[in-house]
Amino acid sequence: MSNARFMGMLSLALLALAMAARAGPDPAVLSYKMPADLKWTESAMYPGLKSAVLYGDPGKPGPYAVRNRFSPGSFSRPHFHPNDRYILVLSGTWWVGTGDKFDPESTTPMPAGSFVVHYGGKVHYDGAKVGECELLIYGDGPGTSTRVGGS
């Protein structure tokens, strides 16, 4: 076999491997989003809160997953959701409070790694005091928020 022919075959083999590697996993088997693929949106209801939908549609019935980022000093006001929500603190410290009286000073810190359940129909508020915090939230939709009172 000539050197040129060998190099040609080697080039074709490497090109085929590179193309197979770029194809990614079979979409019939799994789906994924890379960090650069996330579309972050600012909350109209709570300034300083950004969300990125990872799976599903939180506004519709069915399972969903979102990432939430609270900027320092941003808090939701007392509200509730119709269904249970399951929250994992990914980074920073998330501060949580319950009841319809908004009082950030009475909130409890949830450091990274903490897991919290917000029960459907129960009033709570939450946010970040000093540093940014990021959460992974999942549940069954709709995951809408209903504010309570004049909060």
Oligomer: single chain
Strands in their spatial order, largest beta sheet? 1-2-3-10-5-8
Overall pLDDT: 89
Biggest beta-sheet profile: 6 strands, antiparallel
> CATH topology, which one?
Jelly Rolls
Number of beta strands? 11
User: What percent strand?
Assistant: 35-45%
Helix fraction bin: 10-25%
**Beginning-to-end CA distance, first to last residue:** 80 Å
Instruction: Extract low-pLDDT stretches.
Output: none
Please name the CATH architecture: Sandwich
Look at the helices and sheets and give the structural class: mainly beta
Helix and strand element order: HEEEEEEEEEEE
Q: What is the domain total for the residues? A: 1
Radius of gyration from the alpha-carbon trace, in angstroms: 22 Å
Task: Give the number of helices.
Answer: 1
CATH class identity: Mainly Beta
Shape: elongated
Q: Can you identify the CATH superfamily?
A: Jelly Rolls
